Amino acid sequence: MKSMEGTLKNIVLAGIGTVSYSYEKGKTLIDEMVAKGELTMKEGEDLAGELKAFFNRDAKNRTRHWFDDTINRILEEMHVTTKEETNQLKKEIDAMESRLTLLEQQIATLQQSED
Question: What start-end ranges are recorded for coiled-coil regions in this protein (predicted)?
Fold first, then answer.
């Protein structure tokens, strides 16, 4: 289980690193555009503010979506059943147990009638 915990921790850290790297690259690009005169200082500040707001606003949802997809893919590759699959298997087992009980009762009845 330690191995799985380590893997999950690494996945989370990779996701955080990706978001952080994307923000930093965007900020660097804005700074370069200001330095080249392609944007005014005010435009650069406004754009940087929008970029920061975008990452703050959407990072949680994007990170959660990315994390859920990654976890589901890992669990699928490990052939771990989902909660729905487990519940379906339980229903099938319950149905089989009911059929088995019925068959056992029928066998017992047949054996009694033979005696």
Answer: 79-113
Quick one: 76 and 87 in the same domain?
Answer: no
What pLDDT, on the 0 to 100 scale, is given for residue 105? 96
Shared domain check, 51 and 19: yes
Encoded tokens for 90: 């339980």
Nearest of 24, 88, 92, 23 to residue 57 by alpha carbon = 23
Separation of alpha carbons 66 and 13, rounded Å: 12
Q: Which residues contact 19 (CB under 8 A, 6 or more apart)?
A: 55, 59, 62, 63
In this prediction, the residues of the chain whose per-residue pLDDT falls under 70 are 1-5, 59
Number of domains in the chain: 2
Asked if 59 and 19 count as a contact pair (C-beta separation under 8 A), the reply is yes
